[in-house]
Amino acid sequence: MIDRLSICLVARSPFLGGAEVACERLAVGLQQAGHTVVLLTGFDNDVAARYRAAGIDCRVFDTPLRDKWKLPRYLLARHRLRKFFRSWRPDIVHSNDLPTHQVVSSAAKGLGIPRICHHRFLYDCPAIDWMNRTGAECHVFVSKYLQDTLRAASPRLAAEPACVLYDGLPLPELPTEDERRAARVRLGLPQNKTVVLYAGQIVERKGVSDLLQAWAQLAPDVAAGAELVVVGDDIQNAGAYRVAMEQLAAQLGITPRFVGFRKDVPDWLTAAHIATVPSRVEPLGNATLEAMAYGLPVIGGDTGGIPEMVVEGQTGLLVFPGDPADLASALEQLIRNRQLQEHFGSAGRIRCENEFSVERHTAAAMRAYSQVAAPPDIKRDELKQDVPC
Question: Is the whole model's pTM more than 0.85, yes or no?
Answer without folding.
Answer: yes
